[in-house]
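Let us practice reading a record.
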Amino acid sequence: MSSERLLEIDIVTPQKIIFSGTCSAVSLPGAQSPFQVLYNHAAIVSALDIGAIKIINNDNTQIYYATEGGFAEVLRNKVSVVVETAEASSIIDAESALSIVSSLKTQLENTQAIGQREELKRLIAIQENRIRVSKKQD
């Protein structure tokens, strides 16, 4: 694939740059619905939700990251992703995440306060997403 049809992509968290390079496509967990960015995509700014970021490299290999949400901007074939966290599928400890989910579900069963219940549900969703993404290793 010629470099003329590639996207530039940067994924950053408050701590560091997670990924910076070129790719042929990227899929993002949009707050309204997931979406894919290809070459010459319309300019867009979107909130991101808990989900998977999928980068399709020039050689068709795929890299997956679990994220808790953030924002993405697409402008002139450059994708800028700013997220709280981005964890590569290859380093996610699914067993640990399963254990955390179990503990959080126990806490949820014993919690009555609506605000605390909503936060526990969000934390469960984050860990369940990590488990799903961990299974998407290339």
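A brief commentary: The CA atoms of residues 70 and 83 lie 4 Å apart.
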